[in-house]
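2024-03-11 09:14:02 INFO worker-7 job=invfold-0412 stage=load source=structure_tokens
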């Protein structure tokens, strides 16, 4: 089908309508909870559910188990959302007691570990295509569960090796036995890791061009090694630019650059059903989508930052040492809004904006 300018306008119009619905839901959730509850308990359980949600959406394409693909909306969306919530509850409780020692509310250590699990799942699926687990089984159920477990194993290993929370030693939230005392400041580690996700998503806007020209079959592990090298280089350049030239500290890079850019990419990709400029060839499509995503990142960060005091019903201090505003914005953007985007766009397939029959 030839995609005309009218079709593009329809895609944009539907994406705007869908985004407004998701933003209203996210704002309602954020407004319903005290800011401390939102950035600890609520944010934690949303993040704990995200790796399972990525498995359902990105690996299983919202079509597995097979009976799910045969369901009509809204039953399909409800089943997938329920499965995500159940996984988030079970995994969240396991993390809370096993990794968080049952310390209430969830500590910065536990919250960051949960965030790292989202990073690792985003490495395992789009970059490595679940390799080498995919070589061991073709059963999608087994592969999905094994990948989820592998994501948490990898997250724990990375967290214990890299994260140091010594800067919190003289604060009430510090728990000594939960601090792995890793290689670098925890904010630096988290900022770099989340930046790798933003770079990966940019690569996906390009359909991994030009690597797909060199490795058209995307066979593993060659493809994973090539993409990994590209992401490391891209992350180094992006993080280095904003810290050394832009003068931002690691938390500012995390929220104003990495998180906001990821959010902008989700808007141009996920909320348009991956259809925006789909008829364009690479690299023109990737460049244009990246520019649009960057513009949306800047605009939406401003929207979230300026609306935060009204939604949170409290003035939030920006910058060091508390980073109240940055933490609230990061939770609202990726902790709350992103999972809702997946639910609405992938699980419910934009229902009721679009009426669809089961596949």
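2024-03-11 09:14:09 INFO worker-7 stage=emit residues=359
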């Amino acid at each position: 089908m030839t995609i005309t300018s009218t079709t593009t306008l329809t895609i944009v119009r539907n994406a705007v309508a869908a985004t407004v619905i998701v933003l209203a839901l996210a704002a309602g959730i954020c407004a319903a909870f005290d800011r401390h509850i939102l950035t600890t308990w609520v944010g934690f359980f949303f993040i704990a559910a995200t790796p399972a949600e990525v498995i359902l959406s990105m690996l299983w394409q919202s079509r597995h188990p097979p009976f799910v693909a045969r369901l009509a909306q809204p039953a399909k969306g409800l089943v997938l959302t329920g499965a995500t919530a159940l996984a988030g509850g079970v995994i969240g409780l396991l993390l809370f007691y096993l990794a968080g020692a049952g310390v209430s509310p969830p500590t910065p250590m536990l919250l960051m570990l949960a965030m790292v699990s989202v990073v690792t799942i985003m490495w395992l699926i789009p970059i490595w295509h679940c390799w080498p687990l995919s070589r061991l089984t073709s059963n999608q159920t087994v592969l999905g569960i094994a990948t989820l477990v592998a994501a948490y194993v990898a997250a724990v290993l990375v967290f214990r090796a890299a994260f140091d929370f010594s800067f919190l030693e003289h604060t009430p939230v510090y728990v000594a036995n939960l601090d792995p005392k890793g290689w670098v400041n925890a904010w630096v580690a988290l900022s770099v890791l989340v930046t790798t996700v933003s770079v990966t998503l940019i690569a996906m806007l390009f359909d991994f061009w030009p690597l797909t020209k060199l490795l058209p079959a995307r066979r593993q592990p060659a493809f994973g090694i090539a993409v990994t090298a590209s992401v490391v280089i891209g992350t180094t350049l992006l993080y280095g630019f904003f810290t050394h030239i832009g003068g931002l500290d690691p938390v500012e890079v995390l929220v104003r650059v990495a998180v906001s850019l990821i959010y902008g990419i989700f808007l141009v990709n996920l909320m348009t059903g991956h259809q925006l400029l789909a008829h364009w060839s690479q690299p023109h499509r990737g460049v244009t989508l990246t520019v649009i995503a960057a513009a949306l990142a800047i605009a939406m960060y401003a929207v979230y930052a300026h609306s935060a005091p009204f939604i949170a019903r409290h003035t939030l201090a920006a910058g060091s040492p508390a980073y109240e505003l940055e933490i609230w914005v990061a939770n609202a953007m990726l902790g709350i809004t992103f999972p809702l985007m997946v639910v609405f766009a992938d699980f419910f397939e934009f229902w009721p904006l679009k009426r669809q029959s089961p596949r």
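2024-03-11 09:14:09 INFO worker-7 stage=report msg="Residues 19 and 151 are 29 Å apart (CA to CA)."
2024-03-11 09:14:10 INFO worker-7 job finished
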